[in-house]
Description:
Layout: H1 7-17, H2 23-35, H3 39-52, H4 58-69, H5 73-90, H6 93-106
Helix pairs in contact: 1-2, 2-3, 2-4, 3-4, 4-5, 4-6, 5-6
Amino acid sequence: xxxxxxxxxxxxxxxxxxxxxxxxxxxxxxxxxxxxxxxxxxxxxxxxxxxxxxxxxxxxxxxxxxxxxxxxxxxxxxxxxxxxxxxxxxxxxxxxxxxxxxxxxxx
Length: 107
């Protein structure tokens, strides 16, 4: 059985496979994989984004939330902790607070 797909996924796959360095393209790709419940591929896209652009703060909260939904709490904690550090380093206090709250709620 083929994994679920969408037109949006196809476009994002082309952009990222074509060598896009725009972090939003990788972020959108990860989110779309998650929306399609293709969680391993979503995590791979988030991981690639993190390796390329570790200061792209929005990915940390979204990846952590996805990992929580699929019961991978230790990995979610790692993403949240890294996100708090990244947000703090960039002076993004709202994002730091939001990611910190998600981390605290994780327990």
